[in-house]
Amino acid sequence: MNTLRYPLLIALLSIMSGCTDLKEEVLDESFTGSGLAETISGAIAPAYGQVSWTWRHTNYYGLQLIASDEAILPHRGGTDWFDGGKFLAVHSHNITPTNDLVSSSWNELTRNISRTLTAIETLRPLAEIGNTQAESALYEMIALRGYLNMLMLDSWGLVFKKESSLETSAILRGQDAVDYIESEFLSVVDVINTDLGAGRMTQTAVLGFLARLHLNAAVYRDPYGTPDFRDEDLNKVIEYTSNVINSGLYDLSPEYFELFNDENNTNKELIFALDQRGVLQREHSRWTYWSLAGSLWGRPEFPSSDGTDGPAITPDFYRTWEAAYAVDPAEADARFYMQNQKIPEELRDLTGVSPANDENHYYCTTPEEYEFDRGIIRGVIWGPRKDDNGAFLRCDGNENVYRIYPVIQIKGNGPDRDVAYVNHELQIDYSNEGRLHSKGYRVSKYQFSRTSPNANNFSSIDIVLMRLAEMYLMRAEAQLRMGNTDGALADVNTVRTSRTAREPVPAALSSIDLDILFRELGFEFYWEGLRRTNQIRFGRYEDSWTEKTDSDPMNRLFPIPQSAIDGASNTPGYLTQNPGY
């Protein structure tokens, strides 16, 4: 892994059949006309397509989520999701260099960086002879490489720098790494496209990532020390975020959950996202179904569209919502929960009702009308039910009208299996009781795509990696750290009070400090892959939560996989393990 070498475009295309329909024979050896267009699109498609795999739930996304205080994934019922103990160890910060979640995240990310380099090597000579399409694509790949190296710096404290696949990467850390990533972004920010949309690297995406870089530079310079916030960094955060905010290209979404719906490709809040449409439809709807109960089906027309009983929200993170509001959070903040299921009032009371006597306790709906609830899911859930032959039960024999029941616990080996309803309770932990399949409040932020038959493939929902709300809240944090409390409060309230599509609209705050801002970041961006980074920057990563009591700051960075160190052993001292592992 030390050289990060990959072959050039011709060989690469044969490898990337899963990411693009392009084939080697479509390339025009003269690099003119349609052959040139195919060459350019063939160069960038593997790099963009790999980002989806990098952010897969059992790669980088899972690593960020489970390591934070947002989520926990126990060994469900002693039968599911053990996977060598990797999720248990990551959540408790008891990670070793052989942890497979760490290794898979590292491998997919370094592969992604390699694909950007391959694209850059293909595009640069075409750009140098004056092809403007190749030049534009080249700028995107340089920006994408900068973003991917920032993920590497954030999680492992290093970046890989090289301009030729024939070279060995230079490894940079600390300020050198920050400077290198900044140079990547600055080299393209004034020339990159401004209009290709959230699925591509654009000028506003680069500005947003520059703001992220300078906000987190306080940590990246010395990941184990007290964050060193400098005015020159914070002023750049304000400058870059203001440029995006004032560009006129983006608007905050009045309906919070429309940010994560099938049609979100056109949502004007999205700045950078993974375009899941067309040939790039891959396995990323797993962000939708990973947390859902294994006894729940997301689409009544698709019998294989069940959840996995994966991670749940930690009781600790849930209680930050309770602490913020004098009432149930669902009655105070539209970001917490959206009820989509139209359960008749007379059916809501389940007193005296059980799977043994509920054959008539259902309501009817069509696939077009059916949506499960969104946000943080608590209590008994409702969904379609199968007969003994595995077919969903219909209403009065109508093939397009389905019965929706309280969901029976049919997964796992706990005492509630087949005799009780799925009842999501707050407490979840590693104990025998706390790890049962139904335990823990679930997060249902993304819609179950209407183009997805099984949650694994063909989701039309773009995966959101940067949006306008983050620009406001990064600017708020920079202003607050520089003493401009009024400016920070105004930006936070702009975001809070923008979700006006339905009640309850979160009320404007009357005051702001770092604790309240940290809490607000959690409310706005829960389960979007930002929490671990925010915890470290706010000095909260050494706190205790659920099954995590470790307070060693050395765990702010993950261990470099032992396989990567072993692979670099032919160059002594090239790749050294992070301290503490």
From TrEMBL:
It is found in: Cell outer membrane. Signal peptide: none annotated. Keywords: Cell outer membrane, Membrane, Signal. PROSITE patterns: PROKAR_LIPOPROTEIN. Residues 568-581 have a biased composition (Polar residues). InterPro entries: SusD_RagB_dom (IPR012944), TPR-like_helical_dom_sf (IPR011990). It holds the Pfam family SusD_RagB. One of its GO terms (cellular component) is cell outer membrane. Residues 562-581 are annotated as: Disordered. Belongs to the SusD family. This is RagB/SusD family nutrient uptake outer membrane protein. It comes from Neolewinella marina.
